[in-house]
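Cont'd.
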Amino acid sequence: MPPHANTSSGLDLNAVHLQVEGKSLLTIDHVIAEQETLTVMGPSGSGKSSLLNLIAGFLPTSFTVTGDVRLAGRSLLGLPPQARHVGILFQSPLLFPHLSVGENLLVGLRSEALATGSWKLRRERLAARRTTAEQALASVGLDGFFGRDPATLSGGQQTRAALMRLLLSQPKALLLDEPFSSLDTALRGEIRSLTFERAKAASLPVLLVTHDLEDAEAAQGPVIDLGR
Amino acid sequence: MTLRTGKFWVVLPWVVLGLIQLVPLAAGAIGLVLPLAVSPASGPLAPGFSGQGQASAVQLLLAQPGLSKSVWLSLTTGLFATALAFAVVVLLLAGWIGTRTLGMLRRCLGPFLALPHAAAAIGLTFLLTPSGLIFRALSPWATGLDRAPDLTIVQDPAGLSLMLALTAKEIPFLLLMALAALPQTRCEDYLRTAQSLGYGRFKAFICLGLPDLYPHLRLPILAVLAFAASNVDMATILGPTLPASLSVRIVAWMNDPAADLRTAAAAGAGLQGLICAVCILLWLAGERVASTAVKAIAVDGARGRADRVWKVVGLSLTWALFALLSGAIVSIALWSVARGWFFPDLLPGSWTLGSWRKVLLQDTGPLVTTVVLAALSSGLALLLVIWILETMSRRQLHNGLAPRESSALRAMMFFPLILPQVSLLLGIHVWFLILRADGTFFGVLFAHLIFVLPYVYLSMAGPWYRLEPNLLRNAQSLGLSDSHSFLQIKLPMLLRPLLTAFAIGFAVSVAQYLPSLMIGAGRWPTLTTESVALASGGARRPAAVYALLLMVLPACVFILATLIPAAAFRHRRGMRHSR
């Protein structure tokens, strides 16, 4: 086993071992550098989703975990999900259905607290936030979609909006839970390269979970196959 | 010919359903207006009402002292109790969705759900009065009292104890509805998404998860609202007296021999309907405001922390209210066997089974009536519900569709739950008077069926539509006829939910107060009517026995409903966790 290099940046899966009900589920030891994508493949039941849940903070307490998960040098285990700064794209885009597309991006967008300051200041900040969201939409070809109902968007458009919502929340790592599997083959490649390109631009370490070989190839990074 | 009989069998359940669901509504509405609308010349249409026309009925009502206070009480009790119960459920869900704590709470719900409102009210009186269990536990060491203090706690003029009781009693119901609806929503997915975007549990749930869940809760909430604003049995025991809330006064006027007061009761029932309508409109307006506010807060970018405090607040409130209900149950049990029980003593000084002997061996009338009414109304409701579900599913399967619940049917089932019972029953009562069927057993049974049917349907529809449609298609492909498939596949697979639905119907019927009281004309006393009468007359020991039986009877049926499928499927692991 190689010694861990560069442990203070990137997503460090340090000798992570997952057990459930006494049964060993998976072992992984890898540092995902910034701008690198690690692909984890394997059949269902191999623990891929549990690995994502562990990193994102959604693992049920019935699991036993040894090892550590560190992001930019800080251990994530024990932190609540909202304090981890780990963004996750699920299999479906999960845009909040009661908000417009643009409002979904606003939910993601981090900025200074709005509560303080005068009404005028507050209005200016709200306007600035809206402009940021509109620009983010435009950057993925969704100009003018701010007020649209998410339900009226195609699958590809929804995934793009979900990606931007995620990036606006300024994550420090990106987890991809087969987010391309629900898309048409033609669209899949396009959305995939958009996602990788944006993640690279933001210098994020990326963990991709998939059972699609094409996804793994497109990620151009190391691949761990849990099935073997 | 076959086609015609086929059609007949498809249409018939709807006709029967209409008879039970829609005719009472129409009859109730007309029955309410009839005693008012009759002209002075033609005399009273229904016996026992003064025939002086509508104007005078309203005048008679308005002439009642303290009417506006009664109306105000009904409005505030309904709105505050519902809002409080909803708020506690939201706090609890926000803090604890997806945790073991919530699973544990869910397993505790059973006894509180099975506790009828009348029994809860009786138990809370025993618990909260100055001579109740709480003061006994604190006296004399903490309070210094060796005599029960002269305080007004229950029946306080503002109706606070009534609101507290309603809140405590409705939380288990709303929580159950929410937990049952959760798997049908994507609420938990949205919560995870929001959390991974950096949001704390509370902002995530209230602004981003709840909007997905709330539509499933709306009808149960409105049912709670209408119930809380028009409830009679709890208000009789715990509510203020001079004046009482409107629904209690309507029932008192009804039972008054004076024709004038009975006419005023008819007008009052109309007013009660109006009060419930106002409550519902106010709630719906509140929904609008809240939804706008929630959206504005959702998009402001603030991540909202301070989770831990609210988590503790939500859980503590829930446990406190559950503790209150548990204390009520304990108080009932103690009083049912107490002989001498002097004030500061925590436990009775001497015990007796005399009250039990009397109820179980001597005056068995109310007990038998209750059991027969509950078994018949729940059994009939179950038959009807299955009949309707099967005819609808068959048609959908034959058209190549997977069976799906009809939302129209579901909404229709909620009708009798969203209307004030006292108004609906008063209208029906007038018809029974005209048809000279008041005080008959079948009249009472019919009145029970109106309120039992919706609950049986609501508990049956979920499991019915969760049956794997391909399993049924498989049965078809294997050459099983519809009836074979129904008898040999569906019914056995649904044994557990069928029995649960029966038990729920049974419990609902046992808990009914007004149908037995208003349609039975005093000739069919049940455990509920007797316990309320005894409790408001201050006869604590027999009231406690009746109240405890109100809990024990449905509990026995629930236990049977669990044991029978467990025994039947003891060698079938796949049937163990079907709900």
